Amino acid sequence: MTTSIFSIVEKFFDQNLETKMQWEMDRWGSLQIGGYKPAGKHTGAVEGKRDGFENFLVPLNTLSGLDRDYQGDWPENISSELPKFTEFEFTCHDITLNILSKLSNALMQSRDKRLEDSHRKGHSSTTTVACLKYLPSPALTESQVGHMAHTDVGSLTLLFTSSPGLQVFQRSSSSWIPATPRPGSVVVNVRDTLSFMSGGRLRSCLHRVIPSTGHSGLSKTRYSLAFFQRPELSARFVDGNGREWTGKEWHQTKYKLFRADNNEQRESSVLTGEKGFLGSWKGVEVA
After folding, report:
1. Average pLDDT, whole number, for the chain?
2. Which residue, 69, 104, 242, 278, could crosslink 114 as a Cys pair with Cβ 3.0–4.6 Å?
3. pTM of the model
């Protein structure tokens, strides 16, 4: 199923920028959970630079008929294949609900605080599928590099990719460890709201994506497909500092920081989980 979806989105990304910008994510709605993001819209992996990837988001709300914020159309080649996206996203949602149920059992969550109860089917959320393309060196400007260090905004991520470049921060050694993809496997990340809902017993994964280079020193195109499970918009939880949030409030606050400059990001713990720490890449090549 993922192979088919990769093929569909590659055709979309192969179009010229003017065409793709017809579905720019800010036109999709105020939550910015659908549509196209061009390279350079967010902060990048290197301090002072912008990001080096483009993506297209397919929100669960829209596929479920819950999206009142977006009344537009879909790109032609994606519109004709929406049943595949719907099957994929609904399947991923079922998988993550099962994981949350198992985690609730393992953590002995009380009946009124079970994790899956904040991620119910048919309830509006910012859950979405992201189709990402990290651009090769010839397609980038000098100011565009990778994907900034961050923890994910929602509860669980299912990441499908066969390309290197993802790095995870190991807090015990204060070092970045490559998350090398394995054939037939899926990377599962714990995210912010799951960490909060578990009372910190589960830790949100701090990660970044840096250019994958060969002997030429030039980065290669990297594709990935990510299912971002996020809580219902009205779900409530308390962060590590004792502040209460709703799912919608946390999502909007975090996304605002993705576009902020490094100074503003450094003043908050929301982006990386640690105030003053950006986790910027220093430019060491990876194979």
Report:
1. 92
2. 104
3. 0.94
